[in-house]
């Protein structure tokens, strides 16, 4: 299987390649800017044909940073990348699109959102709307092997140094305070569990897919606040550090109802606490 991974230098894309590239069943092609111009239809078409790409894992995004205001250019670029890829769909056996919890309208708290279907409230932000439209386009293809994997938050040892879980595991190891800017309910999934889910979609036959498995929230069942996760980190060993919440007002929730049960125990999940402990042991 020749698999194009867009956003291959990012956290999710690089983690998938590094973990699964030792399998003889997969040949990964890194969709980096140096090798393929996702904004060019001709570049995408030529790359797919020359490398006989038959599957895509779409991780590339523009925008979506909490501290940067997105522009209409973000909306345009995200849709352009996707449309150039999906224009080659007849060559693809599988298309895995990483979607986002922002597809639910984030003007208010997002809580267990699969009980409130996508589209009940259409998002208005440039980044959120682009992700929403892309997810709908995937589903409209009516191909059982074209799927959306929806992430609210994910973590692992190779994520950026400024991310909440990795930062505070390192703070704990260094006996520094665990810092929470503002508490909120928020979902995170461990990158190893995401990788195992991706492997499921790359290896299972079409007969095992259901309509529900085409659009899933990658979240755990238990909903926790950042302060609960901080306490989990603070209990990794006997030492205890201070937990500082800088803003005492509770921020809007960002959680999604878990769809992991849909895999019917075909995937073994490490879980949030196990993932945090795994990261801790590797960062020591």
Q: How many separate helices?
A: 8
Q: What is the SS-derived class?
A: alpha/beta
Question: How many separate domains?
Answer: 2
Provide the CATH topology of the largest domain. Answer: Rossmann fold
SSE series: EHEHEHEHEEHEEHEHEH
How large is the radius of gyration? 19 Å
CATH class of the largest domain: Alpha Beta
Give the total of beta strands.
10
The CATH homologous superfamily of the largest domain is named NAD(P)-binding Rossmann-like Domain
CATH architecture of the largest domain: 3-Layer(aba) Sandwich
Oligomer: single chain
- The amount of beta strand, in percent, is 15-25%
What integer is the average pLDDT? Answer: 92
Strand order of the largest sheet: 2-1-3-4-5-9
Secondary structure elements and pairings:
Blueprint: E1 2-6, H1 11-20, E2 27-31, H2 41-50, E3 55-58, H3 72-86, E4 94-100, H4 126-140, E5 146-151, E6 154-155, H5 164-173, E7 178-182, E8 189-190, H6 191-203, E9 215-217, H7 226-234, E10 243-247, H8 271-283
Parallel strand pairs: 1-2, 1-3, 3-4, 4-5, 5-9, 6-8, 7-10
Characterization of this structure:
There is one protein chain. The longest helix has 15 residues, at 72-86. The model has no long low-confidence stretch (mean pLDDT 92). The protein folds into 2 domains: 2-153 and 187-217, 3-Layer(aba) Sandwich (Rossmann fold), CATH 3.40.50.720; 156-186 and 221-251 and 266-283, Alpha-Beta Complex (UDP-galactose 4-epimerase, domain 1), CATH 3.90.25.10. It contains 8 helices and 10 strands. It is 33% helix and 15% strand. The radius of gyration is 19 Å and the shape is globular. The chain has helices spanning 11-20, 41-50, 72-86, 126-140, 164-173, 191-203, 226-234, 271-283; strands at 2-6, 27-31, 55-58, 94-100, 146-151, 154-155, 178-182, 189-190, 215-217, 243-247. The protein is α/β, with parallel strands linked by helices and 284 residues long. Strand 4, helix 4 and strand 5 (146-151) form a beta-alpha-beta unit. Strands 2-1-3-4-5-9 form a 6-stranded parallel β-sheet, sandwiched between helices. Strands 6-8 form a two-stranded parallel sheet. The chain has a two-stranded parallel sheet with strand order 7-10.
């Amino acid at each position: 299987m020749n698999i194009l991974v867009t956003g291959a230098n990012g956290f999710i894309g690089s983690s998938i390649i590094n973990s699964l590239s030792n399998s003889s069943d997969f040949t990964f092609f890194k969709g980096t800017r140096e090798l393929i111009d996702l904004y060019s239809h001709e570049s995408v078409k030529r790359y797919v044909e020359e490398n006989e790409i038959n599957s895509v894992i779409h991780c590339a995004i523009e925008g979506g940073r909490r501290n940067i205001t997105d522009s209409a250019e973000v909306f345009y670029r995200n849709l352009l990348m996707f449309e150039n890829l999906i224009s080659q769909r007849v060559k693809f056996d599988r298309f895995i699109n990483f979607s986002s919890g922002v597809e639910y309208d984030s003007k208010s708290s997002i809580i267990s959102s699969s009980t409130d279907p996508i589209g009940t409230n259409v998002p208005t932000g440039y980044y959120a709307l682009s992700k929403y439209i892309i997810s709908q386009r995937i589903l409209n293809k009516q191909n059982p092997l074209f799927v959306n994997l929806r992430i609210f938050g994910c973590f692992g040892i190779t994520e950026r140094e400024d991310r909440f879980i990795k930062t505070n595991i390192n703070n704990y190891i260094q006996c520094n305070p665990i810092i929470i800017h503002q508490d909120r309910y928020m979902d995170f999934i461990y990158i190893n569990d995401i990788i195992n889910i991706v492997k499921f979609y790359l290896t299972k036959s079409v007969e095992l897919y259901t309509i529900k498995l085409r659009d899933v929230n990658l979240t755990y069942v238990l909903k926790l606040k950042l302060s609960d996760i901080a306490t989990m980190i603070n209990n990794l060993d006997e030492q205890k550090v201070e937990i500082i919440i800088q803003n005492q007002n509770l921020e809007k929730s960002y959680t999604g109802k878990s769809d992991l049960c849909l895999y019917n125990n075909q995937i073994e999940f490490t879980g949030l606490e196990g993932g945090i402990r795994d990261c801790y042991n590797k960062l020591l």
